[in-house]
Specification:
Layout lengths: L3 H4 L23 H8 L8 E5 L6 H12 L2 E4 L8 H5 L3 E5 L9 H14 L2 E6 L12
Parallel strand pairs: 1-4, 2-3, 3-4
Helix pairs in contact: 2-3
Length: about 140
């Protein structure tokens, strides 16, 4: 083997995702979601769900909104270990992976949504599936 390829060493450079507004590429497939996020705080209600397949930009849009709204961020799977009152205190909450809320976290999730409405806070939820497919049950 001859040439430059033989003498080159691969470099293991970490790739860190960038979630700034300037790093988001708006396209025909995500324009409605981007517009909805950007319309905050003039949403039609206090809660917005961003639904789409993995890799579609939901977390990136969530990060853009969270920075702008100064929101607290929580994974839906961790809601059962979170204090909804403390989350809502900031006035805005980003719930990542809403469709992954655990059975133990369902009550905390509903409490968070009700508390946000009561206190005039906003909630943005990201998910891979629409809310009616999450299997969440009210008790």
């Amino acid at each position: 083997m001859s040439g430059k390829g033989r003498d080159q060493l691969p470099l293991d450079l970490p790739v860190e995702p960038r979630f700034g507004r300037e790093d988001f590429l708006v396209s025909a497939s995500n324009e409605a979601a981007y517009t909805a996020v950007e319309s905050w705080p003039d949403w039609p209600g206090p809660t917005l769900a961003l639904v789409g397949p993995p890799g579609s930009g939901k977390s990136h849009l969530g990060a853009i909104w969270a920075a702008r709204a100064r929101a607290r961020t929580v994974a839906a799977a961790a809601l059962d270990r979170s204090d909804p009152s403390a989350l809502v205190e900031a006035g805005a909450v980003l719930v990542e992976d809403g469709d992954a809320v655990s059975a133990a976290g369902e009550a905390a999730f509903f409490h968070l949504l009700n508390l946000a409405r009561e206190r005039g806070a906003f909630v943005l939820v990201t998910a891979n599936a629409a809310p009616d497919l999450w299997g969440v049950r009210t008790r």
